[in-house]
Structures are given as structure tokens and as C-alpha cells.
Specification:
By secondary structure, the protein is mainly alpha-helical. It is 63% helix and 0% strand. The protein has two helices and no strands. The protein is elongated, with a radius of gyration of 21 Å.
């Protein structure tokens, strides 16, 4: 598998793009680029969604479930 299609590389690139989106939307909020409450809520929602997606991608890289422990289990047969 080439580096461009390696799933881990793709996830890291997606995370970088999500970070850029979060930063860009944050700059709009901090720079006063919002003139209505609806736009403010919309941009806050975008930031929240981008952050959730980033967290889910991060969870894919760090599985919380235990590894297969078949070699540590003693099977008893009757």
C-alpha cells in the first residue's frame, strides 16, 4: 500500500484539515466576522461538529478495546 492510500496517513491528513477548519472558523468568531446571532450559532455548530469528527478519527487510531487475549486464556475441556 502506498503512503497516499495508507489509512493512518489519510486519517492524519483529515485531522489536519479539520484543525484548519476549526482554526478558520474560530478566527471568524474572534475577528468579529459575525453580525447576527444565527451566524454565530451556525459557526459554533460547525466548530463543534468538526471537533467531534476529529475526536472520532482519533478514537479510530487509539482503540480502547482490549487486544485478543486468546494466548492468555486457559481453555478447559470436559
Amino acid at each position: 500500500m502506498s503512503e497516499a492510500t495508507d489509512p493512518v496517513t489519510v486519517i492524519y491528513k483529515l485531522q489536519r484539515l479539520l484543525d484548519e477548519g476549526i482554526d478558520n472558523n474560530g478566527q471568524v468568531l474572534m475577528g468579529g466576522g459575525v453580525d447576527t446571532m444565527e451566524k454565530y450559532q451556525y459557526i459554533c455548530g460547525k466548530i463543534h461538529t468538526l471537533d467531534q469528527i476529529k475526536q472520532e478519527l482519533s478514537n479510530l487510531l487509539n482503540p480502547k478495546e482490549p487486544e485478543n487475549d486468546d494466548d492468555k486464556v486457559t481453555r478447559i475441556r470436559r
